[in-house]
Amino acid sequence: MADTHQEDGAPAAKVWAGRLGGATAQSVEQYTRDTSDLRLLPDDVAGSQAHAAMLHAIGILDDAEHTALQTALNTIAGEVAGGGFAVRPDDEDIHTAVERRLIELAGDVGAKIHSGRSRNDQVATDLRLYARRACADTVLSIARLQDALIERARVETATVMPGYTHLQRAQPVTLAHHLLAYVEMLQRDTARLLDARKRCDILPLGSGALAASTLPLDREAVARDLRFSAVSGNSLDSVSDRDFAVEITAACALVMAHLSRLGEELVLWSSAEFGFVELPDTHATGSSLMPQKKNPDVAELARGRSGRVAGALVSLLMTLKGLPLAYNRDLQEDKRALFEALDTTRATVDVLADLIDVVSFNRERMRAAASDPALLATDVAEHLVRRGVPFRDAHRIVGEMVRRTVAEQRSLRDVTLDEWRAASPAADEALLGLFDVDAALARRDIIGGPGPRAVAQALDHAAVLVEATQRSPIGSEE
Ligand code: ARG
């Protein structure tokens, strides 16, 4: 008997023991078992409560049986909530664990709960209930990070910094504008998660193993009970559909891609080379060897963990690829990927919200980095455009002037009016006044730009959106 599972007393009979007589090999038991779905316990119990109520309504359970089942399910719900629900080593998954416990508590009537139900439609239902909630929770976490970014942006509207392309200083922006770029990305992430949530909001229960049931199940009643907006339309599809999990994991992968960019910028900005950011000691780490080091590990891990979530997405897609209809045991692997994506994303969003709250920005360093008048070369070219010069000509004229000043180690600000006039007859006195960086920002006051009025509007707009999410994360239409 070395190969069968004997610890913790006699193993519970398998739910399929009628068909397969002998004991399962312990290696098989270990390999196929997956209780990483423990977090689905509350959803599994809720699903069973709704299913039992429906079985009662259609006459499969009599009053006494229904009462007995609901009493036992309530007890289990209490055990789950209180952390006292024990999964035994021979429970194959949480669905069998709950059913076993139900039979322990309610006796033979517990064996009626699975009428018209399969673990295939059960797990699809549990996962959708969980995922639906997780979308809303993730969106709330994202809103908190957006809030932190907005609050910081509010006090950094006059903090001038260089905007970069190719990581070369390009044109002046403000820190507020830069931070609000992340608020925009996160707003799209929220929209994606809430869109994915709609695909979670469909009830698979009643699809049975793959071909529904001969019992007159009232699926709509179960959907109402579990507050699903609709019932699924095809039993084969609904037991094997994990699109919602892919969509959520993809949305998380993109959140993490965004956060990895924020992480990277915090890493760069906290280097001596940039010196834009100072991390408080509470949110930095030291070196075990170099006494002087102060490291931005939180930002680095935010960057690094994005790989895990992208990996979860690939893993899920690979699991689904090529699966014949309908349920296949491969689908059991969906949970690790989805949970990994949600957990990592949420933890990263939360820790970065904390970090943004406490990080300090070195306004002088940022302004100094944006003070090279060459960052306003485009302003000069556009000034010439206003005076009728075709942009390509203006670009060349200013480019040549930049080349000359670089060679002569002068600044663009030092070029005299005569020199500009020699380069272009359209040059005028006003051109010499272009090299004030605050004025340069004020010139960029169009919608979506870094100008002070545009940023003030963007701030208000972002705050309204985030407040709306916080008030009602799933939106007013649902
Ligand atoms: N633990 C399984 C899963 O997550 C539950 C469904 C099992 N169904 C089956 N036919 N073996 O997918």
General description of the model:
This protein is mainly alpha-helical and 478 residues long. The protein folds into 3 domains: 26-115, Fumarase/aspartase (N-terminal domain) (Fumarase C, Chain B, domain 1, Orthogonal Bundle), CATH 1.10.275; 129-193 and 239-368 and 459-475, Up-down Bundle (Fumarase C, Chain A, domain 2), CATH 1.20.200.10; 372-443, Ribonucleotide Reductase Protein R1, domain 1 (Orthogonal Bundle), CATH 1.10.40.30. It contains 18 helices and 6 strands. A two-stranded antiparallel sheet has the order 1-2. Helix 2 (41-57) packs across helix 7 (219-225). The protein starts with 25 loop residues before the first helix and ends in a 7-residue tail after the last helix. It binds arginine. Arginine (ARG) binds at residues 34, 37, 93, 95, 119-120, 123, 327, 329, 331-332.
Set down the secondary structure blueprint.
Layout: H1 26-32, H2 41-57, H3 63-81, H4 94-106, H5 119-154, E1 160-165, E2 168-174, H6 175-200, E3 202-203, H7 219-225, E4 230-231, H8 235-240, H9 243-269, E5 277-278, H10 297-320, H11 334-358, E6 360-361, H12 363-369, H13 377-386, H14 391-407, H15 417-423, H16 429-432, H17 437-442, H18 452-471
Parallel strand pairs: 3-4
Antiparallel strand pairs: 1-2, 5-6
Bound molecules: arginine (ARG).
Brief digest:
This protein is mainly alpha-helical. 58% of the residues lie in helices and 4% in strands.
